[in-house]
Amino acid sequence: MKIFKETVCKTCFKSVLCACVFIAMNILSSCDKDEATEPDIDKGNDPNFVIQKSKDKEMEFFSRKVVVFGIDIYASEGVENDKLLHAANVLAQYLDNDEDGNIDNVVVVDKMKKSKAFLVMWKKASDIEDIEPPFGRIGQDLGSDETTPDFVKNGRKGTFDGALEEIWHLVSDAGYAQAYPEEFGTRKGTQIAKAMDKARGGFFEEVPESYPDNAWFTYDDETCDYSSQISEYFYWGLSSVLGAQENRLSEIGNEWKLNTKQKVEQTDTDLMTLLNNATYKLPIKLPDGSYKH
What is the pTM assigned to this prediction? Predict the structure, then answer.
């Protein structure tokens, strides 16, 4: 899980900005010729979303994008159109879970817009290796090859759809954590952090050598700091309640043991209290990648 946050210092950002301005000036100087010779973008065949050329200067390394409720999804060369449009549909279903055409939690989406939240889809890991996050934006990456559009439609069996995870990380980090910092903030002491500490069997600022026997959230990626652990915990809990993990215990049991709604309800009562609070208007249905509105 790679989260793009405000990690560029002002000095570094100034250098990046200067480079971008230089490139942009060269592009503008030949824009007439480019407009005449540049091939059209395949807009796809989705009834709700259109693939368009990306002309965002700070994201010039991506040629295409889809916009969902004001949130940008960028794609590198090689990302298949159906994968890009699938990601757009999943994001739409997370934000408009009842699919009535209206955002479920306007506060969350407003925070995402304020953070200029974005998703980047890549075909090769090298597509994003040297990318510095644009200053003031919060983003998340999603691999094209880890995106499996038919996972939910095939009864939640087979290769898992990574879009369900990575897109939720964007919604939770750029949306819920910003809109409800005391409840979903990714720092020690928030309500979700306290619930996570119980799930891990105690407070661990870093990944411990081993977790207590009574822990049910045992994520062991040592590169995942406390803040990222909260993001992972939020995802595991919500996705299990929505049914995404019901057939995956053998795959995920080393990280997360409560793979069904019933298990979460019986064991992680603090998390269920948060997820059931109607104030937050969290999703109650797992996206299948077919936004119906």
Answer: 0.87
